[in-house]
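Problem: given the chain below (190 residues), write out its structure.
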Amino acid sequence: MKRHSRNALVLCALAASAFAVLLLWNNSRVGRVLDSYRGVPVYDNGLLYFRSYGKHYSQNGYYYGQKWQCVEFIKRFFYDAKGHKMPDVMGHAKSFFDDTLSDGALNPRRGLIQYRNGSAEKPRPDDLLVFTDTKYGHVGIVTDTGDASVAIIQQNILFHTRQRLSLVVSNGHYFVTTPRRPAGWLRKQH
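Solution.
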């Protein structure tokens, strides 16, 4: 019995040590600049991407969101690069898309025009792409569109800030299809 207790204690001590090393290594990564788009940096949220590192505000008090979550990046991008304050600064990523709105309507919570995946309006650079397929959703910014793909930049995604998604055109409508299918995209009016 003593041998099993000693082995269990050793295993617990090793697990605690490994977790402490992981936390130290993770915390050394958090807040590093990984990439940027239009002068707006993408920060590392570490391997423990679900952790919160506090709230982030602009110099004049506009609330960007929880440090270094995906929503924080897109709100910071729209504010810093596009001069756009979202009327409603709260919400998880999936709340950025309002499923009750028709295609091309103004999303009043975000102050942006909203297009559904399958719209006759093709995604453009600087559009906000919204994924609603997980508990909290995910958001990214379109950086490039081609004939068959859409490139995005994103924060709080493990191992890559940029991703290319397939774009299919059918009967004059644009569908972003793989590897994930977004609900749609939002755009600042000029």
